[in-house]
């Protein structure tokens, strides 16, 4: 299991490097991506909230830890009274 985790971490680092290189090459900034993600969130249908796409956009738009958001949402729903 530890070997697989290490392998995935290395893949993520490689993809992050390629992403940064391509962003630099075409002149896109992190702020550009953040603004685009915010626009996408504004245009999402209400039925798309709490989807993988929603949480991914939240992470790009607000640099929020989506795992933390998921945990908070779960805790709210677990303690919600009928």
Topology of this structure?
Elements: H1 2-26, H2 30-43, H3 52-62, H4 66-78
Q: In words, what does this structure look like?
A:
With 82 residues, the protein is an all-alpha fold. It has one domain (2-78). Helix content is 77%, strand content 0%. The longest helix is centred in the first third of the chain and has 25 residues, at 2-26. It has four helices and no strands. The model has no long low-confidence stretch (mean pLDDT 85). Helix 2 (30-43) packs across helix 3.
The parts where pLDDT drops under 50 for at least 5 residues are none
* Alpha-beta classification: mainly alpha
Share of residues in helices = over 70%
Number of helices: 4
Write a concise synopsis of the structure shown.
This protein is mainly α. The chain is 77% helix and 0% strand.
Summary keywords:
single chain; 82 residues; mainly alpha; flat
